[in-house]
Design a protein that fits this description.
Layout: E1 2-5, E2 11-12, E3 18-19, H1 22-29, E4 40-48, H2 50-64, E5 92-103, H3 106-113, H4 117-139, E6 143-147, H5 150-153, H6 162-166, H7 169-174, H8 180-188, E7 195-198, H9 200-203, H10 206-210, H11 223-237, E8 244-245, E9 254-263, E10 271-278, E11 284-292, H12 305-323, E12 329-334, H13 340-352, E13 357-365, E14 382-385, E15 390-393, E16 414-420, H14 425-435, H15 451-463
Parallel strand pairs: 4-5, 4-6, 6-7, 9-12, 12-13
Antiparallel strand pairs: 1-14, 2-3, 2-8, 9-10, 10-11, 13-16, 14-15, 15-16
Amino acid sequence: MQIDFIEEPELEFGGHNRHVDIRQGLSLFGPLDAVEGQTKTIRIGIVGTQHSVDGIRQWLGRCESGVDAKESRQPQLFPSFPGFGADSPFRTVFEIDETLIRVVSSRELTRIAAQTYYLAIANGATLLAGEVQAISENGRPDVVIVAIPPELADLDAEDEDSDEAHGTSDRATYETRLDLRNLLKAEVMKLNQPIQLVLPSTYDAASKKKRSAGPSDRRLQDEATRAWNFHTALYYKANRRPWRIVRESSALQTCYVGISFYRTLDRSNLMTSLAQVYDERGEGVIVRGKPVELSKDDRQPHLSRLDASTLLTSALDEYRREHKHAPARVVLHKSSSYNLDELAGFNDAVDSRQLDAADFLVVAKAFTRLFRDGIYPPLRGTMLSLDDRTHLLYSRGSVPHFATYPGMYVPRPLKFYIAQAEESPRRLAEEILALTKLNWNNTQFDGGEPITMRVAQQVGKVLKYVKDGGIVQPRYSFYM
């Protein structure tokens, strides 16, 4: 066994400037695609009740000039929001056309909310999707904000913190419980219209106290943090680029692919394979594969040689179509172990596209934990090599930049197993750590999983509502 430590990866922001922290980088240098002296416009539509539409517009107005940081002994962890306007680091303004606002009837919402749980979700999603369609057909804004009405807010059971709390990240991938948020995203996918869902507590903290306590409730973030996350997500969904991971000029042009599986909504044993394809900018595409069965040998989903080859070939072709060139190297992260057929099939795809290098890894949460002296858990970036192929990496942990551990629960490291690789384990770990910082839903940089694996969970939860042959949007912004 051997212990190593990986320094916090830098990110690139506007003007080719670098910083390890997302919020400080944006505040100091602006987004990656910002241009000095130029102001960009994001056209947005809004769907909601009159009360929620007014609440969203008022909150956006307050955030335009900035939001003060909350009182804290960790000011770097909870910085103020610098605002979102022409004079802000984002150099971007919102354009809200009155014709792109749709007000939902409170009477209709009350009627839907009184129905049984599944009927309320289905009819609520249909109602909201119809309003999004009306906006999209009328003027096609960059993003439509869907302010989830209070009557339907309790039907949104998403909780990004629950997996870390219970150590069940795979549970979310295979979850089959009906969910308003993901059903609505699937419903509007055919419109080719990005949407941003917002709960009442985002723009009105007082609404949190009015809702009944339940298992879906989660701790409300401070207002500056909510503003950071909300505006950055909107910026990304408008097809802008806030930041990217740094690629050294001597490194091979690399395509990062995550392959995972999700259970179909009918609760059958069938799993559907899924590939997410990224470059260092986080520009990626989603590729849905074929159904697979759980193996009788290890009870994990596996692809046949042909299906493995077809899925990775499709992913590489989508990368070329998106970026106008082929990569020199592919890094494959998979949520389950590789069998011989899969390795052969993936290598067939690499050979057919004449790539120079390929690294195949299994990436999952580990049950082994390390301990250090004091009250804080191990540092983020701590790496334990158990043998040549098996390694643990703390992608969450104590962060020297913050001088604290910013999480709520005892962190679990990632375990990555090298099935085939040409790069060193340390270099592969550096890439994993950097890929944890490509999450545009959260501007706190210590994400627990690389984007290749994190996206798999969210995409799978949406695609289970899309029928075979249905429209599958390739951009991640349609799923987040």
